[in-house]
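Re: weekly structure request thread

Next one in the queue (172 aa):
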Amino acid sequence: MATDTTRPGPVRRALRWMYGTVPRGIAFTLVFVLLLAVGYLRAANWLGGGPLSEGCPKPSANVSPTSLDGEFTGPDGMRITLTYPDHTFRVTNWPLADSAPDYGSSKRFDGTGTWDDDELPGADGTTIALRFRDDPAEEPVSKLAVGGDNGAPVLFEDRDPDVCPSLVFHRA
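Done, posted below.
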């Protein structure tokens, strides 16, 4: 039985179909490049490389109160410094609760107070409750969830577990 060498093979037929016209060829090239980019990002995320691995913080029960001692920075110059074991804090450029989700508003203040850590009801995780010494005129953000990012503690306002928080504090 003789083999027909004039008829192209399945790979050649697929390539001829994909690149048979210029618009179809451009479309398949763009899809291929997009798939390569997505693959690169997924690989970088899997390998734990830098900012590509950052996602939404999740509450964690594996963060101890002793690891919260220190300064955390947030968006737009917000800062919180927690001290342990005396459970005091200092905030700079702190937002008011009604300024969410636009924390870039002008409703900010500086203050001090004490904090307590509590377990999240019905979930794995911890929150810290902030009690301000001098109550501001309006209600400040006063509860933060505690999570972990590559072993470092992260503080964030966990308003909705289905939405990535916009107020996240990382170790300074």
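The CA atoms of residues 42 and 148 lie 21 Å apart. Strands lie at 70-73, 79-83, 88-95, 108-119, 126-132, 143-149, 152-156, 168-171.
Next request, please.
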